[in-house]
Amino acid sequence: MDRGNAFDPDCPTRVVLDRIGDKWTVLVIGALEDGPLRFTEVRTRIGGVAPKVLTQTLRAMERDGLLTRTVHAQVPPRVDYELTALGTSLTAPIAMLTDWAESHLTQILASREGYDAALDAR
Amino acid sequence: MDRGNAFDPDCPTRVVLDRIGDKWTVLVIGALEDGPLRFTEVRTRIGGVAPKVLTQTLRAMERDGLLTRTVHAQVPPRVDYELTALGTSLTAPIAMLTDWAESHLTQILASREGYDAALDAR
DNA sequence: CGGCATCCTCTGGGATACTG
DNA sequence: CAGTATCCCAGAGGATGCCG
């Protein structure tokens, strides 16, 4: 099997991994899973995101077709973000990952403790 | 469902995402899937990794219990890296991700083209 | 061979302030 | 409200060289 080329920006795995590895994308998907939200709603639901960073994340996801950005011409402005079918389909693999994470976290943390303890002992 | 807290370093999802999102971890897992390899073998198989960076990656993975590092006392030195059961179990969720990536890459790239074209038009 | 040590660059991410 | 404009920083990632 071809492992892919980490340097080829068009390598499928890289494309997805770059987005998944991003600090906020997964949280945004989680926030929008239950339906469309406005900018501020996403912001407060996630918590701790600087507006600039959230905008970056949302724009990148929009560019990749993971969500749609709908501007309602009214005052005050209202912008809705909603997952596309593509974005929704990503929730499945992500769920696999979080499931794995939850069921193996204990092992991982234990391993870290052991590793660090061994280092301290030296 | 609890979306998790991106600031809690012990949030299961964060722990895994941090490792997955890392540029080399997934490649290393792929390289070791078929059996143990020596440092240089991993290096050449992946291609383009600086030794320092590969070491960092391998150490982090060892710390998390994803692989074992075995030093053979001989000259010249020989160090084998091998996936643990934990590391191997990670290949499943990763496969989900790469599968998703491969089957949706076309959509993503098309979306990007459209997005960028719309920007240029302005 | 399998690394440390060093130095450097780049950019993801953030704090803050301002505006259509 | 929904951003944009600035400035800033830590750290991931990389290039190079030396060593047990």
Characterize the biggest β-sheet of chain A: 3 strands, antiparallel
Unreliably modeled segments of chain A: none
First-residue to last-residue Cα separation of chain A? 41 Å
Shape of chain A: elongated
Name the beta content range of chain A: 5-15%
Gyration radius of chain A, rounded: 18 Å
User: How confident overall, as mean pLDDT of chain A?
Assistant: 93
Instruction: Find the CATH topology of the domain at 13-89 in chain A.
Output: Arc Repressor Mutant, subunit A
CATH class of the domain at 13-89 in chain A: Mainly Alpha
CATH homologous superfamily annotation of the domain at 13-89 in chain A:
Winged helix-like DNA-binding domain superfamily/Winged helix DNA-binding domain
* Count of individual beta strands of chain A: 3
Helix content of chain A: 55-70%
Oligomer: homodimer
CATH architectural group of the domain at 13-89 in chain A: Orthogonal Bundle
Q: How many alpha or pi helices of chain A?
A: 6
Structural class of chain A: mainly alpha
Report on this model:
The structure is a homodimer of 122-residue chains. Chain A is mainly alpha-helical and 122 residues long. Helix content of chain A is 61%, strand content 11%. Chain A has a domain at 13-89: Winged helix-like DNA-binding domain superfamily/Winged helix DNA-binding domain (Arc Repressor Mutant, subunit A, Orthogonal Bundle). Chain A contains 6 helices and 3 strands. The first copy, chain A, has a 3-stranded antiparallel β-sheet with strand order 1-3-2. In chain A, strand 2 (67-72) and strand 3 form a beta hairpin. Chain A is elongated and about 65 Å long. The relative contact order of chain A is 0.11. The mean pLDDT of chain A is 93. At the A-B interface, helix 1, helix 2 and helix 6 of A face helix 1, helix 2 and helix 6 of B. The structure holds a DNA duplex (20 and 20 nucleotides).
